[in-house]
Amino acid sequence: MIPSIEHLPPDKKVYFASDFHLGAGSQEQRRRTEKKVVSWLDSIKHNAHAIYLLGDMFDFWFEYKQAIPKGFIRFQGKLAEIRDAGIPVTFFTGNHDMWLFDYFPTELGIPVIREPQSFSINGKNFFIGHGDGLGPGDFTYKILKKIFKNKLCQWAFARLHPNFGIGVANYWSRKSRITNNKKQDVYLGEDEWLLRYSREQEKLKHHDFYIFGHRHLPLDLEVSHNSRYINLGEWLNHFTYAAFDGIHLKLKTFEDPQD
Questions:
Q1: Residue spans per domain, the chain
Q2: Out of 3.60.21.10, 3.30.70.20, 3.90.180.10, 3.30.70.920, which CATH number does the structure's domain 13-253 have?
Q3: Between 104 and which of 43, 78, 110, 165 could a Cys-Cys bridge form, CB atoms 3.0 to 4.6 Å apart?
Q4: Is 107 helix (H, G, I), strand (E, B) or coil?
Q5: What is the pLDDT of residue 125?
Q6: Residue 57: DSSP 8-state
Q7: Out of 30-34, 114-118, 151-155, least confident range
Q8: Residue pair 223/214 in contact by the 8 Å Cβ criterion
Q9: Nearest CA to 129 among 56, 200, 54?
């Protein structure tokens, strides 16, 4: 469970981001994305009270007992610096990085959460998660998710040599929709399934904000007259994130001064 934040200091903010998809694209694009993410983290660390990463931060991740995918060292180093400064970071798994296990909690002090969570900040109620497998439809993926979450499936994949297992996964990654910039992620209007899911949840319990990733679209939509659904977009094209100052939640675009 995520602990609530009773009082957010007036000079602090809470940040939300998702779908960095580190490792996607060409070598040049992978390096550019990672540097942009690190630059964003640098830009917020001075006033961040907490940071929530809502999944698909990696385009693929699998932890063997004695090995992890190579790369992403700048990202991991920046997270370590932020944690060492006492800023809490929480990592939600997405459909591309659901095979995170104990590396982030043990090495970086970053808890890994696998299901959506409800909590409050400054008296505002939040419901957050990656967003995969929620709402109506997408039955094929929901079946695949159950397979990938299966302990036997994870055990079997871990029996593969890392050179082969990670190599196969990287091949799949190169076929992903974000790597190939496929125009699947179009706004569906009232058929946006995470909007519909948020409205169903709102009937059960009020939340001021529903925040998800997964859709790769920056969205700020009305759930009810006093509730909003925010989708955080992605970091190969949009570079968007959300910031909460204790009163207002704003969807923003990161403009890297190094660009």
A1: 13-253
A2: 3.60.21.10
A3: 110
A4: helix
A5: 98
A6: S
A7: 151-155
A8: no
A9: 54
Percent of the chain with pLDDT strictly greater than 90? 62
Q: Dihedral of CA 184/157/162/130: which sign?
A: positive
| Residues 77-111: tens digit of each pLDDT | 999 999 999 999 999 998 888 778 899 999 999 99
| Percent residues over pLDDT 70 in the chain | 82
The SS3 call for residue 100 is: coil
Alpha-carbon gap, residue 210 to 240, rounded angstroms: 16
Q: Give the pairing type, strands 48-53 and 89-92.
A: parallel
3-state SS string for 109-139: CCCEECCCEEEEECCEEEEECCCCCCCCCCH
